[in-house]
Design brief:
Length: 196
Amino acid sequence: MNTETVLLVGVGGQGTILASDVLAKVATAAGMDVKLAEVHGMSQRGGSVDTVVRIGDKVASPVIGPGMADHMVSFELLEAARWLPYLKPEGRLVVNTRMIAPLPVLIGQWATPTGMYAALVYEGAVMLDAEALACEAGSPRSANIVLLGALSRGLPFPGDSWRECIAAIVPPKTVEGNLAAFDLGCAACEKEACET
């Protein structure tokens, strides 16, 4: 396997770190070399969170620059727009349709951004209402696992490996709901858009 770079972006509290941990464990279980880098400065206050997971036979560094991500999963619209330059032109983009307004919008300093959904669709994004799917799974806080389900369709790891790693990481009482969320994310991702 050549090196695959996955960029996961969102804001604090959305579960980006847990999602990247699951991905890293799935790749490690498959015998891949994995390097992971997290930036979550003000994440506890709703600030930006980004995680890079690089997977391959031999990975030198988790550091990436613009145009280097093979896959990007965005947990909300604004972060997708902010990080889009880091995706390769032929890269896969999975985006949660939720938008979390930043503080300047909330206090009226800036207008609510518009047109992002259409712009991301134009860029070829697979758009998912991850919160709605998580609720359908009976696990409202598992939107991150819904997005992992969509991501999994473009990576060469079997579904059973994903399920085992999810079950090992999430709290025991949430395993069933998280696995249902993962399956709904897989199903919601159109085959033509999500498979490599």
